[in-house]
Amino acid sequence: MSLIENEISKRKQRTHGDDEILIGKGGYIAPDDYLWRDILSAVVLKKPVLLKGPTGAGKTKLAESVSAVFAQPMQSVNCSVDLDAEALLGFKTLVQKDGQSVIEFVEGPVVTAMKKGHILYIDEINMAKAETLPILHSALDYRRMMTNPFTGEVIQAHPDFSVISAINEGYIGTAPMNEALKNRFIAYPVPYLTGDQLAELWNREFPEASTELKSFMLHLAADLMKQVENGLLSEEAASIRSLLDATALSAHMDPMRAVNYAIAEKLEDESERELFRDLANTWIK
Ligand SMILES: Nc1ncnc2c1ncn2[C@@H]1O[C@H](COP(=O)(O)OP(=O)(O)OP(=O)(O)O)[C@@H](O)[C@H]1O
Questions:
Q1: Ligand 1: which residue has its CA nearest to atom 24?
Q2: ATPase dynein-related AAA domain spans which residues (predicted)?
Q3: Which residues contact 118 (CB under 8 A, 6 or more apart)?
Q4: Which residue of 117, 157, 176, 189 sits 20 to 30 Å from the alpha carbon of 216, by its own alpha carbon?
Q5: What are the per-10-residue average pLDDT scores of the chain (285 residues)?
């Protein structure tokens, strides 16, 4: 058995009680033959994983699929400029016990994931304020431990504790990631699906849809990718999420209106919207 299969069977044997509700559903389709196993390799080697890719490329789905394959609960943190140490580690609160007010510490997602050996998914990690995340450095490198500044507790991570982060690189409003933080991760590009893999996703998500509709969406997706590569459309124009939304809407309305609402109206420039509509029109029969 390979290292990966060995680790999968080991982690799967654990039981997680009520936390089982936090196990992901899976369903990520990889763009090639190696990305999925390459990511699992980093996880079993206890290296933090950084998923780099545009919005709606399946990064969250991929993290959920890692959670599913190991049957391991996933704690999620969504970063924003307001994210502070308390949102990551937890906070103190007053509770009543035997008629007395006592201070208790409510553990946050990082502490829980470290202690229970869950997967910690940190979405949009580059959106957090530069001063917030260094608190994680010692948990992310070979030390795999942290001193909780709120309680003074020294936490040694459970052997299964794994970290997956995601970043929308180049997305407006995102700062580059702090170098010392980035240095602790193994980074994987997560592109939009194309070709056969995209068709596989459509066939799975829309088994009832007509071949004509699926063919329209898949041709449109290919054209959008081409124009993104040519620099004529912004990357989110080819977002798989938006294309899936458009296909779902098409069950209830004309597909041209569906792609207009789900994709065109969200593009910033009128020139982009026009180009998009021209491309869509060429595939509408
Ligand atoms: N390769 C893929 N395999 C399976 N589903 C995918 C894939 N790519 C996109 N999707 C689907 O597209 C939608 C968006 O995916 P997801 O939320 O994982 O994207 P994301 O990269 O995390 O986006 P964001 O950066 O905006 O958070 C979901 O419905 C997801 O199932």
A1: 55
A2: 48-185
A3: 19, 22, 72, 73, 74, 75, 112, 160, 161
A4: 189
A5: 92 96 97 96 97 94 98 95 91 91 95 98 90 92 96 97 90 72 95 94 95 94 92 91 96 94 93 93 79
